[in-house]
Amino acid sequence: MKQIAIVYFSRNGSTRQAASFLAERTGGQLVELETEKRTGFLRSGYQAKKKKAAALKGDPWESVRESGVLVLGTPVWAANGTPAMNSFIKGADLTGKRVYLFTVQADPETRSAGTIHSYFKELILDAGGQPAGTLALHGAPPGKTAPAGAFDRLLEAWEIC
Ligand SMILES: Cc1cc2nc3c(=O)[nH]c(=O)nc-3n(C[C@H](O)[C@H](O)[C@H](O)COP(=O)(O)O)c2cc1C
């Protein structure tokens, strides 16, 4: 039984990089969210702004059923989280789970992260989970991937579990 699961969505690899680092550090299980459809840049931004949900492949909820601690990772799209992460949290039963959240974005000042974290905190509470901590990371411009090791120092210092 896996104690910790790191559930993430990543389009260009930066969030995946952070999630993989956390998986190595915590021994947690990686669960990648994949959408049924890949939307273009403008549509993706529009759907994120409208806080839409996107159909996910497979059953990521089953993968985390036994996990007591979840770390959720999502890029920032149009000053919001991603439709993939909206779907995951809205479809989840997080009862009894401690839930950490990190966001990855192009803006080095990580503007809008606070608002996004507050929004997800409400969704996590609605799903029965216990919000446990948040972290805002500076990733890369749209379409680019952050250089290897870009997040290590901040993730090392993040008090999780
Ligand atoms: C549709 C779209 C909208 C975006 N909107 C924002 C934004 O509002 N603010 C920001 O800082 N970065 C924004 N970005 C940049 C991503 O957050 C950034 O490239 C991040 O590193 C992507 O993570 P990933 O490589 O895991 O997909 C946007 C990227 C995309 C594709």
The name of the CATH architecture is 3-Layer(aba) Sandwich
- From the alpha carbons, calculate the radius of gyration and give it in angstroms: 14 Å
Give the helices and strands as they follow along the chain: EHEHHEHEHEH
How is the biggest beta sheet arranged? 5 strands, parallel
Quaternary state reads: single chain
Enumerate the strands of the largest sheet in spatial order, edge to edge or round the barrel. 2-1-3-4-5
Helical segment tally? 6
What is the CATH first-level class name?
Alpha Beta
Give your account of this protein's structure.
The structure is a single chain. By secondary structure, this protein is of the alpha/beta class. It has a single domain, classed as Rossmann fold. It has six helices and five strands; from the N terminus they run βαβααβαβαβα. A five-stranded parallel β-sheet has the order 2-1-3-4-5, with helices on both faces. Helix 1 links the parallel strand 1 and strand 2. It is globular, with a radius of gyration of 14 Å. The chain starts with a strand and ends with a helix. The model has no long low-confidence stretch (mean pLDDT 96). Flavin mononucleotide (FMN) binds next to helix 1, helix 2 and strand 4.
Summed up:
The protein is built from six helices and five strands; from the N terminus they run E-H-E-H-H-E-H-E-H-E-H. It has 161 residues and is α/β, with parallel strands linked by helices.
